[in-house]
Amino acid sequence: MHNSSVFAEEEKISLTNVATKLAEANSKCFTVCFTTKVDDKMVADKLAKLKGKPSAAQIKELAKDLLVGERKELVGRLSRAEGKLGRSLVIDLPTQGYRQVDHRTLVWLIIDNVKYTVKK
């Protein structure tokens, strides 16, 4: 049995392979990092924090932040997976609730003592 947040080695693999590892997790415990969907409130908060006249570099960085949601980590167990680049229904172990993880937004996955990072 492996701990879901401890890993001995790290591999950089494609997004499709990370999604396949998640979909084949069955009842194994894992930790997954993914980005959430961008919502209006998050965009409004980031724009409200902007003060003064921003430089071109700050505008470019702000644009990147507004296109990508927040990073979330989830310790869970797979309940159901829908294809390679679909979504997975995951049981969130600390809260015992259900959460959906979109495979297209995966950042990394720790399972079986290995951390699989999506290579860019």
The residue-averaged pLDDT reads 90
The total of helices stands at: 3
Straight-line N-to-C gap: 30 Å
Radius of gyration: 17 Å
Q: Can you tell me the CATH topology of the domain at 9-37 and 70-118?
A: SH3 type barrels
CATH architectural type of the domain at 9-37 and 70-118:
Roll
Sheet with the most strands?
A: 7 strands, mixed
Output the helix-strand order. Answer: EHEHHEEEEE
Give me the side-by-side strand order of the main sheet: 1-7-6-2-3-4-5
Task: Please give the CATH class of the domain at 9-37 and 70-118.
Answer: Mainly Beta
Structural class by helix and strand composition: alpha+beta
Helix content: 25-40%
Strand proportion, as a percent range, falls in: 35-45%
**Shape designation:** elongated
Poorly predicted runs are: none
Strands, total number: 7
Secondary structure elements and pairings:
Blueprint: E1 9-13, H1 15-23, E2 29-35, H2 40-48, H3 56-67, E3 71-81, E4 87-92, E5 97-102, E6 106-111, E7 114-118
Parallel strand pairs: 1-7
Antiparallel strand pairs: 2-3, 2-6, 3-4, 4-5, 6-7
Description:
By secondary structure, the protein is an alpha+beta fold. The chain has a domain at 9-37 and 70-118: SH3 type barrels. The chain is 25% helix and 38% strand. It has helices at residues 15-23, 40-48, 56-67; strands at residues 9-13, 29-35, 71-81, 87-92, 97-102, 106-111, 114-118. It has a 7-stranded mixed β-sheet with strand order 1-7-6-2-3-4-5, with helices on one face. β3 and β4 form a beta hairpin. The longest helix is centred in the middle third of the chain and has 12 residues, at 56-67. The radius of gyration is 17 Å and the shape is elongated. The chain starts with 8 loop residues before the first strand and ends with a strand. The model has no long low-confidence stretch (mean pLDDT 90).
